[in-house]
Amino acid sequence: MPPRPRRRRPSPQGERNEAAQLADRLQQAGFTKRDIARIIDRDPSLVSQFYTKNKGAAFVTALREVVTAVEAGGITDLPELAAIATRRIQRRTTASGARARVRGKALLITPTGSGTGRVGAQAISSGSARLRPLIAEAARLGLRLAFTVRLAKTSYLHPSGSRTDSPGIRRDVIQRADHTEERSYGSAQTGGFNATDFARRVDAAGGDVTAAVHQWLVETERIHPDAHILHLEIRTWRPR
């Protein structure tokens, strides 16, 4: 009998392609795979495929410059790094030399009213501007919304799981090893918030989504006034 074919084993770290090696250096500098995806304007799944499917050759030049900007220039702002990468990313071409078509970005909000937007520390400090269109569109469509925030545990006024803090959704408290905690406010089960009212709050804050959420948390006596939001997620849905 012929020998049975051997299964392919994943390549050890030393044999990773250059895109994966550059991604490793960015992660060592504190960036996540999702951050890297935003820098090169692609889906996070593609970054994972640098490791699993040997992809990423088209982004090596861009990633080299980004790594240099981070390691030598000390640049950490995602939009600035994305601008650096954009100059070095070339679109694929077809056999005839024409630009290859790429899939467009997902709809802001689906026809069923479902939408999600997340921002981390970099965007938080600048007001979470990319979440404003999501909230505005949710208000236009008459949707409901909920949000999740991450803060230091000591920033909350109520203990973890308190029904006073987040009635009916105590299961949505996530404690992390870095002494921060994620808590969710609003859900489809509890009715959530009126997106129109929330959009007004954002407008009153000059478009600063971070400030609007922070103000609500302070007004409703859930966090200390000097607390800092570290992560913010907005979710929308159509009321029944």
Descriptors:
240 residues, alpha+beta, six-stranded antiparallel sheet
Describe this entry's structure for a reader.
This protein has 240 residues and is α+β, with helices and mostly antiparallel strands. 35% of the residues lie in helices and 13% in strands. It contains 9 helices and 6 strands; from the N terminus they run H-H-H-H-H-E-H-H-E-E-E-E-H-H-E. Strands 1, 2, 3, 4, 5 and 6 form a 6-stranded antiparallel sheet that branches. It is globular and about 55 Å long.
How many β-strand runs?
6
List SSEs in N-to-C order.
HHHHHEHHEEEEHHE
**Termini, distance in Å?**
64 Å
Work out the helix count: 9
Helix content: 25-40%
Structural class: alpha+beta
What kind of sheet is the major sheet?
A: 6 strands, antiparallel
Short description:
The protein has 240 residues and is α+β, with helices and mostly antiparallel strands. The chain has helices at residues 18-28, 33-40, 44-52, 60-71, 78-86, 121-124, 132-140, 195-204, 209-219; strands spanning 115-119, 144-152, 174-175, 180-185, 193-194, 231-237.
SSE arrangement:
Layout lengths: L17 H11 L4 H8 L3 H9 L7 H12 L6 H9 L28 E5 L1 H4 L7 H9 L3 E9 L21 E2 L4 E6 L7 E2 H10 L4 H11 L11 E7 L3
Antiparallel strand pairs: 1-6, 2-4, 2-5, 2-6, 3-4
Helix pairs in contact: 1-4, 2-3, 2-5, 4-5, 7-8, 8-9
